[in-house]
Amino acid sequence: MKTALCGLTNGGLTHNLHLPVGISLSGTRLTGVNGFIESFVPGEVSLFVDCSLPSDGPITVEFNGACLEGEILSSLTFAGGSRTNILVYDSEESGRRRNPRFPVVLPARVYPAGSGEAIKGTIVDISQDGLGLELTAALAIDSMVAIESETCTTFGLVRHCRRTAGIQFRIGVSMVYVMRKKSKRFWDSWLNKAAI
């Protein structure tokens, strides 16, 4: 059996993407580092970087404007660079997502439990059973929340909340129920069809 650089094989075929990425580490002076995504398995990504990286801590990997955030699991330094494995933040403990997420940018009004007041935010990803938010306020884990967008209002439970930068928070919501809005265009179209 052929051995991949990162130890991942599939029927003798290696999984070495060698996909060029930019890397930054929170809380360090190390920014603008270049490297390569060599391989991945659900919940983990393996990188090759041409410098030494710490053996733990938060890391951001960027490819053509798309970012992946995670935690360094291990980093083995050798002549010419380091091989670093990271745990992807948005995966379950098993390392697998139940459903794929699709990135979006949708303005939203978020109504936290007990507040009655809306907080302006942005829906940044959507999956079959959840969505990701960016807000300027933290929300309590397991609290109920209503999220209103242009097309619907979603009711759900906060599953995670973490500070991303400054006063921004990234919040994951498990959806319980979605109510679609009936727009004026919907009613005009429906009335026109009913009149025929």
Give a short overview.
The chain has one helix and 14 strands. The protein has 196 residues and is mainly β. A hairpin with a 2-residue loop joins strand 13 (152-165) and strand 14 (168-180).
Explain how this protein is built.
It contains one helix and 14 strands; from the N terminus they run ββββββββββββββα. It has a six-stranded antiparallel barrel. The chain has a six-stranded antiparallel β-barrel with strand order 9-10-11-14-13-12. Strands 1-2 form a two-stranded antiparallel ribbon. It has two domains: 9-88, Thrombin, subunit H (Beta Barrel), CATH 2.40.10; 102-180, predicted glycosyltransferase like domains (Thrombin, subunit H, Beta Barrel). It is mainly beta. It starts with 8 loop residues before the first strand and ends with a helix.
- Give the termini separation: 69 Å
Mean pLDDT rating: 78
Q: What fold name stands as the CATH topology of the largest domain?
A: Thrombin, subunit H
Low-confidence stretches: 1-15
Helical content stands at under 10%
Name the CATH superfamily classification of the largest domain: predicted glycosyltransferase like domains
Widest sheet: strand ordering: 3-4-5-8-7-6
Content-based structural category: mainly beta
CATH class of the largest domain: Mainly Beta
Main beta-sheet strand count, sense and barrel state: 6 strands, antiparallel, barrel
Oligomeric state of the chains? single chain
Q: Count the strands?
A: 14
Percent range for β-strand residues: over 45%
Q: What is the CATH architecture descriptor of the largest domain?
A: Beta Barrel
Q: What sort of overall outline do the alpha carbons produce when their principal axes are compared?
A: elongated
Number of helices: 1
